[in-house]
């Protein structure tokens, strides 16, 4: 198995420690979080690492397919289920209906960081054009009822914001603008009754083949930008929690899961079969007939590569990520 030296700093596992006053006010406000075992509705926002191709106008989540449409595992970038599918069907502690409005290529706001094509739905679009009009109006009386108590809102965003802007000289100002928008979107969801929020921070995609191919400078400086982004996620959630003592916010250290697997795939049961963590095989880059295809031109089967192509990982690390999230939310 190939290896690579990792020089970026280790990120924190969760939110910075709250002040004693914040702890007191959170307890007094009687948080809506009732535990992972009581989550019945999962609303998901993000990019290609999260997308399943869900259409809010199509078949809704149901007992036959808790992700609604399309057929499980959906249209993913992982050549199999992604973390959303695994979390919903493998590591769920109850029956969960998952409404996944994520869109491949998404940034927080296309006006601030342009996606690879103008038709991409940003986090802002996902919130304002999909979630709010379909599920956010009077949740108790809609065709898809949910409550603050039984619902979790999950966000996995930032990979494209960082990837499309890390080299800019004004990145500090840009990130401040992005997180102002991010905060406003959270406020809009909070206004509909959302109280429980899960954030996946940005993994070390500077160690994906796309950046590795561009040399040490790109690896180092995109890695720094990722750490800045992840720190802003922690700051965002801490500040939002200070404003809304009845909200429960979780930051999952997805960066650490990916870093661990890149260092040693055997650290997780789900990834112990991975044999290449730095490259990918061209025969697999657009997907394969099965989740375990072995092409003669490739050294390993598709699921034995961490990377399906130059940016997107295969399903085993999505599996490990979902297992880690469920453990985190249950602790």
TrEMBL record:
Protein name: Carbohydrate esterase family 16 protein
InterPro entries in the record: GDSL, GDSL_Est/Lipase, SGNH_hydro_sf
Domain of life: Eukaryota
Molecular function in Gene Ontology: hydrolase activity, acting on ester bonds
Pfam families for the chain: Lipase_GDSL
CDD domains: fatty_acyltransferase_like (cd01846)
Keywords, comma-separated and alphabetical: Hydrolase
Annotated organism of origin: Periconia macrospinosa
């Amino acid at each position: 198995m190939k290896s690579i030296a990792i020089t970026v700093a280790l990120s924190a596992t969760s939110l910075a420690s709250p002040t004693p006053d914040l702890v007191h006010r959170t307890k007094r406000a009687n948080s809506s979080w009732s535990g992972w075992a009581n989550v019945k509705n999962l609303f998901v926002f993000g990019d290609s690492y999260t997308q399943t191709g869900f259409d809010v106008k199509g078949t809704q989540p149901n007992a036959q397919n808790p992700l609604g449409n399309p057929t499980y595992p959906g249209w993913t970038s992982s050549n199999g289920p992604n973390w959303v599918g695994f979390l919903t069907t493998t590591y769920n502690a109850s029956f969960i209906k998952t409404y996944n409005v994520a869109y491949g290529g998404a940034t927080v706001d296309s006006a601030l960081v342009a996606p690879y094509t103008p038709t991409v739905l940003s986090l802002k679009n996902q919130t304002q054009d999909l979630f709010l009009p379909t599920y956010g109006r009077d949740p108790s009386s809609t065709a898809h009822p949910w409550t603050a108590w039984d619902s979790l809102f999950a966000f996995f965003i930032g990979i494209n914001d960082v990837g499309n802007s890390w080299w800019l000289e004004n990145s500090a100002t840009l990130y401040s603008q992005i997180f102002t928008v991010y905060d406003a979107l959270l406020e809009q969801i909070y206004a509909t009754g959302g109280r429980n929020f899960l954030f996946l921070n940005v993994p070390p995609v500077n160690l994906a083949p796309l950046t590795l191919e561009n040399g040490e400078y790109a690896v180092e400086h995109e890695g720094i930008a990722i750490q800045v982004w992840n720190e802003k996620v922690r700051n965002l959630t801490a500040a939002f929690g200070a404003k809304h003592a009845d909200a429960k916010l979780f930051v999952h250290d997805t960066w650490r899961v990916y870093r661990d697997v890149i260092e040693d795939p055997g650290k997780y049961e789900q990834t112990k079969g991975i044999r290449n963590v730095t490259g990918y095989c061209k025969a697999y880059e657009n997907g394969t007939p099965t989740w375990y295809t072995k092409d003669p031109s490739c050294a390993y089967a598709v699921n034995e590569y961490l990377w399906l192509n130059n940016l997107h990982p295969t399903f085993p690390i999505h599996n490990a990520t979902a297992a880690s999230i469920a453990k985190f939310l249950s602790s």
